[in-house]
Design goal:
single chain, 240 residues, mainly alpha, Helix Hairpins, 2 domains, binds zinc ion
Length: 240
C-alpha cells in the first residue's frame, strides 16, 4: 500500500509539471491575442478616420461651392453701387456687401480649418496603415514562434502524460478511481494533502487521533473532512 501512496504522490508531481507546461502555452497564446487586439484597435480607428475624412471632404466641397456663390453675389452687389441714385440705397447696398464679405471671411476660415483637419487625418491614416502592414509580418513571426514553442510544450506534456498513465495503471483500480474522483475537483490543485501538527496542511482542518492512526496505518484512503483531499501518510509525505 505504501507504494500506492508513493506512486500517487509522483502522479501529482507530474500533473503539476503538466500544468506548468500548459501555463507556458497559455502565455504564448496571449502574445498572439495581444497583437491581434492592437491590430483590431488600429483597424477600427482607421475605419472611423476614413469615414470622418469622407464627411469633412463633402463638407469642404459644399463650402467651396458656397464660397463661389458668395463671390459672385459680392460681384453683382458691387456692380450695382455706381448705378444707385439715393444715399439710402447706397448705404443699404454697402451694408449688404459688408455682410457678404463677413460671410466670405468666415467661410474661408472654415475651409482652412477643414484643409488642416484633412491633412491631419491623412497623416494619421497613413500611420495606421503602416502599422497594419508592418504588423502582419510581426504577427506571422510570432505565430511561427508560438507554434514551435507550443509543439515543444505539447511534446513535454505528452511525455509526462504517458508517465502518469503508466503509474496509474499499476495502481489497483479502486484506489485509482478514488484518485480520479478527487482529481475531478482538484486536478492541478493538489488532490493529495498531508497532516502537519494535527491539521490538514492545505485547508487547516483539525484531524482526530483516530483519523491520524488510520492515515498512518495505510489500510485505506483517508480523506480530509474539510477539503476532501486524500491524506498521504507521514512517511510518504516526507520521503522517509
Ligand atoms: Zn483539508
Amino acid at each position: 500500500m505504501i507504494e500506492v501512496f508513493r506512486s500517487l504522490k509522483e502522479v501529482m508531481a507530474l500533473e503539476n509539471k503538466i500544468k506548468r507546461h500548459m501555463d507556458v502555452i497559455d502565455e504564448e497564446k496571449k502574445r498572439i491575442s495581444f497583437i491581434e487586439n492592437q491590430r483590431k484597435l488600429k483597424q477600427d480607428k482607421l475605419e472611423e478616420q476614413n469615414k470622418l475624412t469622407s464627411s469633412v471632404r463633402a463638407k469642404s466641397t459644399s463650402d467651396e461651392n458656397e464660397l463661389e456663390k458668395i463671390d459672385s453675389q459680392i460681384e453683382r452687389v458691387k456692380q450695382r453701387i455706381p448705378l444707385l441714385k439715393t444715399d439710402t440705397q447706397i448705404k443699404a447696398t454697402e451694408q449688404e456687401a459688408a455682410s457678404l464679405d463677413e460671410k466670405k471671411d468666415q467661410l474661408e476660415t472654415t475651409l482652412l480649418e477643414e484643409i488642416e483637419q484633412l491633412e491631419q487625418l491623412s497623416d494619421s491614416i497613413k500611420e495606421h496603415e503602416n502599422f497594419l502592414k508592418g504588423s502582419i509580418q510581426t504577427l506571422a513571426d510570432i505565430n511561427k514562434e508560438v507554434d514551435e514553442k507550443t509543439a515543444k510544450e505539447n511534446k513535454e506534456i505528452n511525455n509526462l502524460q504517458t508517465r502518469v498513465s503508466a503509474l496509474l495503471e499499476d495502481i489497483p483500480l479502486q484506489y485509482r478511481n478514488k484518485y480520479h474522483d478527487v482529481n475531478k475537483r482538484y486536478l492541478f490543485n493538489n488532490p493529495l494533502t498531508s497532516e502537519e501538527n494535527g491539521i490538514c496542511e492545505i485547508c487547516q482542518m483539525q484531524i482526530t487521533s483516530l483519523q491520524h492512526m488510520a492515515i498512518e496505518k495505510m489500510a485505506t484512503f483517508e480523506a480530509c473532512s474539510g477539503c476532501n483531499r486524500i491524506f498521504l501518510p507521514h512517511k510518504v509525505a516526507h520521503n522517509l
